[in-house]
Amino acid sequence: MSAADGVVLGTTQIFGTASRSLAFNVVLLAEGFTQPQQTDFNAACSAFVTALTGTDPFGQVAHGLNVFRVNVASAEAGADDPVAAGGTGATPATYFDGRFGANGLRRLLVCDESIALQVALAHVPEFSVVLVVVNSQIYGGSGGSVGVYSLAPGATEIALHELGHTAFGLADEYAYYAGGVEPDRDHHPPVEPTEPNVTINIDRQTLKWNWAVGAATPLPTMSNNDCASVDGRPSPVPAGTVGLFEGAHYYHCAAYRAEFDCKMRALGVAFCRVCQHAIATRIAAPVISSVPIGTIDTPPPSATVAGEVALTGWAVDDSGIADVLVYRSSVAGESTDATGLVFLGTAAMIAGARPDIVAAFPLYPGVSSAGWGFMILSNMLPNGGNGTFTLHAAARSLAGETQAIGTRDIVGANAASTLPFGTIDTPGQGATVSGLVTNFGWALTPQPKTIPVDGSTIDVYIDGVMVGHPSYNHFRPDIAALFPGYANSNGAVGAYQFDSASLSNGLHTISWVVRDDAGAFQGIGSRFFAVHN
Amino acid sequence: MSNEGARYQPRPAIRFVFEYEGDSLRLLAQQAVEMVVADPRPARADTPGYYLDARDSEGRTLARVAAHGAFRQSAEVFPERHEDPIARIDVPRQRGAFTVTLPAVERADHVTVVRVVGSADRGAGLERLAPRSEDIASFPLSPR
């Protein structure tokens, strides 16, 4: 059971066209596939590429990704499966000595890392990560210097998690070590982890992923009330919210992860936004794409929405981005433009809003304005904003190319919503202001509730700090006509004045939180604006 | 931004493959490559862990990169049902391999695998002690 038990047949690049010296190079090695079974290995590699590029952000940065398969014929098929670990007792002669049952755990599937690394070095010396694909339907895998996984359904998830460690330096986000009662895992040591996706720091200004935290998101976002155990409660905030969730890096308390869920915490879920950023940075930074690339970041897929929805994302191109166009799919009988879609508008490109993209794509012109945002008042979508709508974003480059960069389904539920809704009109998304600024917006709440007309229950937040209440109960004919029959239809508008000189020059955020007389509250209008005095 | 961009440029480098069992360490291979060597976990040189130093003939350190995966002491165990938790187990018998890519350095004569023992390893009350480096093993560089 060693390299004497087979032969390396050859190497084939199965994905990507980027220069090897620049690209992120994944090498897949065949283990326990006999010569006639090489087609099975080839199929497994294709399935891996599909899984990889279907996992965010790998598909978005595919231009920086190469995948190679190294066909290796083993003398016999499968992997060792010791009886002592509950296996069959099989001991096939295979090239990389793949074996289940390491440390007495059948699903801990390992191989000879030395042989695997040397084969990868010989065939793709620029490899970024090596994965050994084991010809067995028994579930198993492991990580380390070499990732190992079997053909069992779902085992590619092991490979993706291990990529997070080996190639991208991501930490485990689960809040325990082995599980069970672990009194030594109550509190994380007071040492900041070097990995990008876990922290002990709860300061908003210095948090290493503060670029991803919304101004209205509380920090910590979720605290563990019992440090003697793992917090088993559900998330208090919508999926996709980036904040500080206590319990990470093998400790119940005093260490935080960025989102409630992430593939570095559990298999079968997406990488969180912070991990996606780390991955995209490593893959995409060296390689320039010749067509616009980007994505939609918010709202989360299939999010149920009411009132205002912030569609946000980023886009970059080797010539620079001219603009990002936002569309929605049409409904029956509705006219469309040449794209076959209904044009909604042009997103605002926001300088300084996405330092993560600047870090991930440092070589792209205009990357400092890669972030874009577009506010949609879902009440104004067809059928009063009730039902499923598909939003589309397309980026236009300065060189004239237009490229679709994402679609996002949202489920409008305005009929069932009991929450206030509305928007901020000024400052516009990404607008530059100076001197005295009047911040206009409007808000309504479903009948029979009302919003107190003195504006005392509308809070204006600048940079996450509540700064005051607007003067409310002002009439605007278009709002009154669009939304008749609400208690505040004839006085929906509010105005708040502030001196921008009290803020530093640069990017800031503003939002309203509206509370009605029944205590229901909703944030509206959250956006960036720039001060230039 | 320009510095960040430079960090991701390919450069001449040497890739090493090491094998370990217990405290014993062997260099299995070293090969010149040209590739991006940006470390996703750029640790300070005093962060506890293992590193590979490029040193000159007089033992002066010319470059240091982290040796991720060296002397691993635990392994992850993955659930078949994805809703079940992942867990870690200690690996009592250390055996494995790791690879390190070191930017090519003028005047480098040999490489040394180093273990940095930091304050976090030393227990409560001694946190202010300076990190300490221990040389594990040195290997000559092949002529290029």
SSE blueprint:
The complex is a heterodimer of chains A (533) and B (144).
Chain A: E1 6-15, E2 24-31, H1 38-53, E3 65-74, H2 113-123, E4 129-134, E5 141-142, E6 147-150, H3 156-166, E7 198-199, E8 245-248, E9 251-257, H4 273-284, E10 293-298, E11 303-305, E12 308-316, E13 321-328, E14 342-346, E15 348-350, H5 355-360, E16 371-377, H6 382-385, E17 386-397, E18 402-413, E19 421-424, E20 432-433, E21 436-444, E22 458-462, E23 465-468, E24 471-474, H7 477-482, E25 493-499, E26 506-515, E27 521-531
Chain B: H1 2-7, E1 11-21, E2 24-35, E3 49-55, E4 61-66, E5 74-77, E6 87-90, E7 95-103, E8 110-117, E9 132-140
Antiparallel strand pairs in B: 1-2, 1-7, 3-4, 3-8, 5-6, 8-9
Please state the CA-atom Rg of chain A, rounded to the nearest Å: 26 Å
Instruction: Report mean pLDDT of chain A, rounded to a whole number.
Output: 92
Determine the N-to-C terminus distance of chain B. 33 Å
Identify low-pLDDT runs of chain B. 120-128
How many β-strand stretches of chain B? 9
Helix content of chain A: 10-25%
User: Which band does the percent of strand residues of chain B land in?
Assistant: over 45%
Largest sheet of chain B: 4 strands, antiparallel
